[in-house]
Amino acid sequence: MNPLLSLAKPIGFGFMNASWTGSPVLTDPAAREAFLEVLRYAMDQGVTFFDTADIYAPSWDTMGHNEKLLADAIAGWSGSAEQKANLIIATKGGITRSDGEVWGRNASAEYLVKAAERSAKVLGLSVIPVWQHHRLDPSRTLTQALEGLAAVKASGIAKNIGVSNYNAHQLRAAYNVIGGPSDGGLVSVQNQLNPAYHHDLDLLEVCEDLGLAFLPWTPMMGARKSEEGTPSYEVLGEIAAERGVSRFTIASAWLRSLSENLVIMPGVTRKESVADHLAALSFELTEDEHTRLAEGLVSGPEHHEIISDQPLAE
């Protein structure tokens, strides 16, 4: 059984923005503690899945910052030892940051294993429930990247493996090398999917075929009233107003309608956001609303980093 498809609540939360430059969490101890209480509130509401990454940090020399926030939230949570053990923590590695904020990719077995080991240490875990390869390495072939992924699995530092920003062919190749949920192997793919960006929908078919979870990143993009560089989809606001709910609720319902293998992962920094996203899980769209959204939600262009991060030809 895929642990991400048997969640008590089919949702996970990310909180990347808490670790980026400008976040009050970085400089104000009270703001930091208030944010930790947001994560604990989600845990109290029965949420067991949380997603982070080693590069979510304010600077190259503070990598692991976001992971440490999660570790501290769990340590201070009033849940029982059993409840803490049942949390599904997912983190990612494979993007590098170095002095001078030089960003890169490294899919070598040595780097990926060390990255996973560092993440486990920061998270306070002996084994990471789900470790994900964050992005492909354009200096290596897909075969070489999958050798690195297999090395992480073989090291025992990860209970399950996930990939991120892979296309359908690459996802199947990873499954063939790593195995699937029944093998303690590949359980998920994390790609961008939201009202403003819906390329790679063929991944949903692969996930359904192989029993994998699709974890959309930035799932609420396009749902806000105005976002620089992002189309404003009036149909979301129209339906939200008609039904007396938030635009995020409509976006959530639309995403969940695409596949039963999709587990949304909205970003949160406030308790109100947690409550809104949890309430949205019981909201269903009408047939007419599905039609209106299908006509009104037009995807933007493919993400430039997905194009540039493609592996070398075999």
Describe this structure in words.
- The protein is built from twelve helices and nine strands.
- By secondary structure, the protein is of the alpha/beta class.
- The strands form two sheets. It has a seven-stranded parallel β-sheet with strand order 1-2-3-6-7-8-9, with helices on one face. The chain has a two-stranded antiparallel ribbon with strand order 4-5.
- Strand 6, helix 5 and strand 7 form a beta-alpha-beta unit.
- Helix 5 packs across helix 6 and helix 6 packs parallel to helix 7.
- The two termini are 33 Å apart.
- Give the % helix: 40-55%
Spatial strand arrangement across the major sheet:
1-2-3-6-7-8-9
SSE ordering: EHEHHEEEHEHEHEHEHHHHH
CATH superfamily: NADP-dependent oxidoreductase domain
Number of helices: 12
Care to give the gist of this entry?
This protein is α/β, with parallel strands linked by helices. It is built from 12 helices and 9 strands. Helix 1 (29-44) packs across helix 2.
List keywords for this structure.
two-stranded antiparallel sheet, globular, 314 residues, alpha/beta, 41% helix, seven-stranded parallel β-sheet, TIM Barrel, 9 strands
Question: Secondary structure elements and their pairing?
Answer:
Elements: E1 12-14, H1 29-44, E2 49-51, H2 65-75, H3 81-85, E3 88-93, E4 95-98, E5 102-105, H4 109-123, E6 128-133, H5 142-155, E7 158-164, H6 168-178, E8 186-190, H7 202-210, E9 213-214, H8 234-243, H9 247-258, H10 271-280, H11 287-296, H12 304-308
Parallel strand pairs: 1-2, 2-3, 3-6, 6-7, 7-8, 8-9
Antiparallel strand pairs: 4-5
